[in-house]
């Protein structure tokens, strides 16, 4: 199965809050999304972490 579960880590606080899936064959670069960070109480950039 090409889809894998990945963890998203905040670039500002290094907090790992969200998980999602991605197709590793079609998307080879690291996933980057804007998500809500409850610690900072605003939207921040979350990047794929190992």
Describe the protein in words.
- This protein is mainly beta.
- The protein contains no helices and four strands.
- It has a single domain, classed as Ribosomal protein L33 (Rubrerythrin, domain 2, Single Sheet), CATH 2.20.28.120.
- The chain has strands spanning 3-10, 16-23, 32-37, 42-49.
- It has a four-stranded antiparallel β-sheet, with no helix packed on it.
Tags for this model:
50 residues; mainly beta; Rubrerythrin, domain 2; 4-stranded antiparallel β-sheet
Low-confidence stretches: none
Q: How does the helix and strand content classify structurally?
A: mainly beta
CATH superfamily: Ribosomal protein L33
Major sheet: arrangement of strands: 2-1-4-3
Helix and strand run:
EEEE
What distance separates the N and C termini? 19 Å
Shape: elongated
Q: Provide the residue-averaged pLDDT.
A: 96
Portion of residues within helices: under 10%
**Integer tally of domains:** 1
The largest sheet, given as strand count, sense and whether it forms a barrel, is: 4 strands, antiparallel
């Amino acid at each position: 199965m090409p889809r894998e579960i990945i963890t998203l880590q905040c670039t500002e606080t290094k907090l790992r809050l969200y998980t999602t899936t991605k197709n590793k064959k079609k998307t080879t670069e690291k996933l980057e999304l804007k998500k809500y960070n409850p610690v900072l109480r605003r939207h921040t950039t979350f990047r794929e972490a190992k």
